């Protein structure tokens, strides 16, 4: 029925129905409760307590008791040490030894910058963004034997790991990716096949923004000049000659970094990648360009 | 358009020449509102190898030239099976104190005074470390020990002024006075617990 017919029918009904009076109205359901008297046919005799048993004798079992078997509320033990685990970020680890193995077995290309996408693509590391995994934690196992010159971008690294990479003339950066960006990075091909525009990467949350703006941790939001000073300090602390990056022939590759809003190397937010026709569609509208560059 | 193929040809030439490619990449690279250029407008945004800037207040500049130190690695002691036997995590760091021109003369003399007996026959100061399971961390520990030695040798105790010396002497005297007074009181208390002698009665 169309809306015009509905209104016409309702108006016709109103015309034909009788007038509103005290005789044709009733209370809203639940507004009046029948007063329960403990006397008379309905309230008297057993007074709503039933026959025999704990119900009539007011000897009730405690709430949750299941007549002896292990009750539901006790079947699942609760350990306080994991309180709030679902609110915390996790960084599944991969060691420097693993990275060295990947490089030695040609699963990782060190002539290009390495980020989480390339490590996942090597096939020997996986992470699940929907399980509160926020990226790679590079651990120090194998830091003594690490001997590759790489430009690597991870999400968490300690001081000795940074020293191990810089000792060999490499560059390490710690960068934050929000969960949606990580889902994209984990499988870029499936994202490109959806035909959506590449979104912007979000900024780190307040409790970790200090980490990513600190030069000591080689944060991606830190000043590169301060990072250079920290490199010298670390070389003195760990006892190695600081390799001169500027005279390296791969200096440009080693210093290549993503913009804080960029998810993929060489691809900007707002672009639509067409894998079938092998072309990139870029926005032209001013408003869109402004948004994606914000 | 007739100009289009010429323009692309020119662009290709520019792209091929190594000098201009980075310039072009920089100008065409994506720059968001929170890029490093907007965050640090006064910075060069380059990773460099800066020269060490010594602390002007201190005698020792703070810089330790690693190439002037003789560092050797060996296997550590203790339990650990095959791993402790094979992995050389112990660090042996040595250098001749007399020939260490990166340490100022006064500090070197003080070091010889403090640790002269510990030097080897040839005059090497030897520092060893095998505290951790990692060579890198043990080397850092050795260097920290070295820095502590240099620090010990370079700190000069400030002599107290005559007023302070006098105040310290008065404090010692007061403490002695109090100590003796308490001793006297205790002795009196103990003497009063004894039964009276014929002389007192």
From TrEMBL, chain A:
<dbReference type="Pfam" id="PF00828">
    <property type="entry name" value="Ribosomal_L27A"/>
</dbReference>
<feature type="domain" description="Large ribosomal subunit protein uL15/eL18">
    <location>
        <begin position="93"/>
        <end position="173"/>
    </location>
</feature>
<feature type="region of interest" description="Disordered">
    <location>
        <begin position="21"/>
        <end position="57"/>
    </location>
</feature>
<dbReference type="InterPro" id="IPR030878">
    <property type="entry name" value="Ribosomal_uL15"/>
</dbReference>
<dbReference type="InterPro" id="IPR036227">
    <property type="entry name" value="Ribosomal_uL15/eL18_sf"/>
</dbReference>
<dbReference type="GO" id="GO:0003735">
    <property type="term" value="F:structural constituent of ribosome"/>
</dbReference>
<protein>
    <recommendedName>
        <fullName>Large ribosomal subunit protein uL15m</fullName>
    </recommendedName>
</protein>
<keyword id="KW-0689">Ribosomal protein</keyword>
<dbReference type="InterPro" id="IPR021131">
    <property type="entry name" value="Ribosomal_uL15/eL18"/>
</dbReference>
<keyword id="KW-0687">Ribonucleoprotein</keyword>
<dbReference type="InterPro" id="IPR005749">
    <property type="entry name" value="Ribosomal_uL15_bac-type"/>
</dbReference>
<dbReference type="GO" id="GO:0006412">
    <property type="term" value="P:translation"/>
</dbReference>
<comment type="similarity">
    <text>Belongs to the universal ribosomal protein uL15 family.</text>
</comment>
<dbReference type="GO" id="GO:0005762">
    <property type="term" value="C:mitochondrial large ribosomal subunit"/>
</dbReference>
UniProtKB/TrEMBL annotation, chain B:
<dbReference type="Pfam" id="PF00472">
    <property type="entry name" value="RF-1"/>
</dbReference>
<dbReference type="InterPro" id="IPR052104">
    <property type="entry name" value="Mito_Release_Factor_mL62"/>
</dbReference>
<dbReference type="InterPro" id="IPR000352">
    <property type="entry name" value="Pep_chain_release_fac_I"/>
</dbReference>
<feature type="domain" description="Prokaryotic-type class I peptide chain release factors">
    <location>
        <begin position="75"/>
        <end position="91"/>
    </location>
</feature>
<dbReference type="GO" id="GO:0070126">
    <property type="term" value="P:mitochondrial translational termination"/>
</dbReference>
<dbReference type="GO" id="GO:0004045">
    <property type="term" value="F:peptidyl-tRNA hydrolase activity"/>
</dbReference>
<comment type="similarity">
    <text>Belongs to the prokaryotic/mitochondrial release factor family. Mitochondrion-specific ribosomal protein mL62 subfamily.</text>
</comment>
<protein>
    <recommendedName>
        <fullName>Large ribosomal subunit protein mL62</fullName>
        <ecNumber>3.1.1.29</ecNumber>
    </recommendedName>
</protein>
<dbReference type="GO" id="GO:0005762">
    <property type="term" value="C:mitochondrial large ribosomal subunit"/>
</dbReference>
<dbReference type="GO" id="GO:0016150">
    <property type="term" value="F:translation release factor activity, codon nonspecific"/>
</dbReference>
């Amino acid at each position: 029925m169309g809306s015009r017919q509905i209104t016409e029918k309702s108006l016709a009904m109103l015309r034909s129905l009788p007038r509103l009076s005290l005789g044709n109205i009733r209370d809203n359901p639940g507004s009046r409760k029948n007063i329960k008297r403990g006397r008379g046919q309905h309230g008297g005799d057993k007074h709503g307590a039933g026959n025999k048993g704990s119900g009539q004798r007011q000897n009730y079992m405690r709430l949750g008791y299941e007549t002896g078997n292990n009750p539901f509320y006790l079947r699942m033990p609760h350990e306080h040490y994991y309180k709030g685990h679902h609110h915390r970020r996790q960084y599944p680890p991969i060691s420097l030894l693993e990275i060295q193995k990947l490089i030695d077995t040609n699963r990782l290309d060190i002539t290009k910058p390495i980020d989480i996408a390339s490590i996942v693509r090597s096939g020997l590391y996986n992470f699940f963004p929907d399980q509160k995994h926020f990226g790679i934690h590079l651990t120090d196992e194998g830091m003594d034997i690490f001997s590759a010159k790489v430009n690597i971008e991870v999400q968490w690294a300690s001081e000795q790991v940074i020293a191990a990479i810089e000792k060999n003339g490499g560059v390490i950066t710690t960068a934050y990716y929000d969960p949606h960006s990580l889902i994209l990075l984990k499988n870029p091909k499936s994202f490109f096949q959806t035909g959506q525009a590449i979104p912007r990467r979000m900024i780190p949350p307040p409790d970790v923004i200090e980490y990513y703006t600190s030069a000591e941790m080689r944060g991606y939001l830190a000043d590169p000049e301060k990072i250079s000073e920290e490199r010298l300090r670390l070389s003195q602390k760990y006892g190695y000659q600081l390799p001169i990056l500027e005279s390296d022939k791969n200096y440009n590759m080693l210093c290549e970094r993503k913009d804080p809003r960029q998810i993929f190397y060489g691809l900007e937010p707002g672009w639509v990648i067409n894998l079938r026709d092998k072309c990139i569609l870029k926005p032209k509208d001013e408003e869109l360009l402004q948004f994606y560059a914000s | 358009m007739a100009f289009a193929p010429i323009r692309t040809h020119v662009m290709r030439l520019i792209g091929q020449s190594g000098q201009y490619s980075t310039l072009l990449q920089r100008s065409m690279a994506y720059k968001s509102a929170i890029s490093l250029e907007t965050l640090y407008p006064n910075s060069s945004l380059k990773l460099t190898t800066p020269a060490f800037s010594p602390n002007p207040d201190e005698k020792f500049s703070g810089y330790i030239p690693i190439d002037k130190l003789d560092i050797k690695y060996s296997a550590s002691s203790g339990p650990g099976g095959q791993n402790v036997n094979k992995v050389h995590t112990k660090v042996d760091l040595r250098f001749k104190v007399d020939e260490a021109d990166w340490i100022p003369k006064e500090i070197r003399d003080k070091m010889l005074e403090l640790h002269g007996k510990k030097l080897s026959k040839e005059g090497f100061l030897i520092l060893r470390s095998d505290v951790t399971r990692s060579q890198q961390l043990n080397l850092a520990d050795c260097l920290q020990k070295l820095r502590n030695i240099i620090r010990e040798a370079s700190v000069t105790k400030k002599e107290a002024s005559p007023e302070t010396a006098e105040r310290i002497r008065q404090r010692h005297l007061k403490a002695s006075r109090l100590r003796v007074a308490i001793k006297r009181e205790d002795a009196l208390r103990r003497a009063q617990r004894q039964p009276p002698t014929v002389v007192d009665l």
